[in-house]
Design brief:
The protein is α+β, with helices and mostly antiparallel strands and about 400 residues long. The chain has helices spanning about 1-35, 65-75, 115, 130-135, 145-150, 195-205, 220-235, 250-295, 295-305, 310-350, 355-360, 365-390, 395-400; strands spanning about 40-50, 60-65, 80-95, 100-110, 140, 160-165, 165-175, 190-195, 210-215, 245-250. It contains 13 helices and 10 strands.
């Protein structure tokens, strides 16, 4: 009974630790992927108000840029910025297909906007291209949810015509479903995207609502932002160090926050895992001490018959290791089964996708190696001291006790 309870202690500790690391890894991957749903290495720039006086001009002046300014930034910052696009937005659009209608936000953008913002087309469709922009084509790229509302499906609708504010537009693509936990004007799944030139021919906007740019790989976002100020500051007469002249959302800071957060979270899991398995190790150590006491006569006889102390030591170390290994193996087996079969079962039985909120648990290599290492050390230390005590017994004293 003591042996069984000891194995159960190791078993449950292993299950707990493996599940903790697996759920933690799933949550981390979900949060990082969702944060990238907004875009990878991008910043969103809105007009701002100066906070510093500059060259005789007072603070408090509103800075508004044009699409031509965005084009100039693109031309002059090729060493820091890999892509850039203005964005004209309006929510005053009504979409209609046959009898189905939906209100949606429409964004007028450049073709590179899609890749920057992780807006990828489903198979059979495409995103906007340069000819759409140059020829002011009436084409629209739909978010997957707005497409579902209009057509009842997202596939096989490329080439269909919908009306946006009673004007016909050709559907050229539908967005792949993506996870997105942050936005600045609503989720992309509920939007439509048209060329900026087409948008302006309808709405006659002078100023973009904002523009989005992507820093080149290996370039710090702060350096890319400084390049934007370097281009716009002389033209609009503001201090290049005035951070409020333009309102900028650096999304890489959000990614860094989650990365740092999960480093701390992993450290917390390591501490919890260590203490959980050490608790099981204490149980192994206790039972091995009891075993030594109950088998003192046996040990004395073995030593009297010529058994080396190293043999006695190895015998009890092996027993402690076997107990730990048995509990650990059973624990890994149960944890792996739970991780493999429970999430799909919950997906079928629940009315919502649980993975959207906590991610999909999966075996964490780091957590597995850590657990195996702790189990190995636990087995060594839990069995060593009782085994050392047993090997140091004198035959006459051991037998005399009985």
């Amino acid at each position: 009974m003591r042996t069984i309870l000891t194995v159960v202690g190791i078993f449950w500790g292993t299950v707990s630790v493996v599940l903790l690391f697996s759920v933690g890894k799933g949550l981390e991957e979900m949060m990082l992927n969702n944060s990238k749903g907004l875009g990878d290495r991008i910043s969103i720039v809105w007009p701002g108000v100066t906070a510093k006086a500059w060259n005789g001009m007072p603070a408090g002046r509103r800075i508004r840029y044009t699409e031509a300014d965005v084009a100039e930034i693109k031309m002059r910052t090729t060493d820091k910025i890999s892509a850039i696009s203005p964005e004209y937005r309006s929510s005053d659009f009504n979409m209609k297909y046959n009898r189905n209608t939906a209100s949606a936000s429409i964004s007028g953008i450049w073709p590179e906007f899609g890749e920057m913002r992780s807006i990828l087309p489903q198979e059979g469709g495409r995103f906007l291209n340069q000819r759409d922009l140059d020829e002011k084509r009436r084409v629209v790229f739909l978010g997957d949810e707005i497409a579902e509302k209009l057509f009842g499906k997202t596939g096989d609708i490329v080439g269909e015509t919908i009306k946006i504010n009673k004007i016909p537009y050709l559907v050229i693509g539908v967005m792949q479903k993506k996870n997105q936990n942050s936005s600045y004007s609503g989720r992309d799944k509920n939007k439509g995207f048209i060329p900026s030139t087409t948008f302006n021919s309808i709405m006659s906007r002078r100023y973009p609502s904002n523009f989005v740019f992507q820093a080149k790989a290996g370039v710090e976002m702060k350096d890319a932002i400084n390049e934007v100020h370097r281009v716009l500051a002389p033209k609009y007469g503001y201090d290049p160090t005035d951070t409020r002249a333009l309102s900028i959302w650096d999304t890489t800071r959000q990614s860094k926050f989650w990365s740092d957060f999960f480093k701390v979270f992993r450290t917390f899991l390591v501490v919890i895992g260590c203490f959980t398995l050490i608790t099981g190790g204490i149980g192994v150590a206790n039972i091995m001490h009891v075993v030594v006491q109950e088998r003192t006569k046996e040990i004395g006889i073995k030593i009297a018959l010529g058994a080396h102390r190293s043999m006695i030591l190895m015998q009890f170390l092996t027993e402690g290791t076997l107990l730990t290994a048995l509990g650990g193996a059973l624990g890994f087996a149960l944890a792996y089964s739970l991780i493999t079969f429970v999430p799909p079962f919950l997906l079928q039985t629940l009315d919502f996708d649980l993975a959207e909120y906590i991610g999909t648990p999966n075996i964490d290599t780091f957590g597995t190696l850590l657990t195996v290492s702790i189990l190995g050390l636990t087995a060594m230390f839990a069995g060593y001291f009782p085994a050392k005590k047993a090997s140091n017994l004198q035959p006459v004293q051991a037998i005399k006790l009985f």
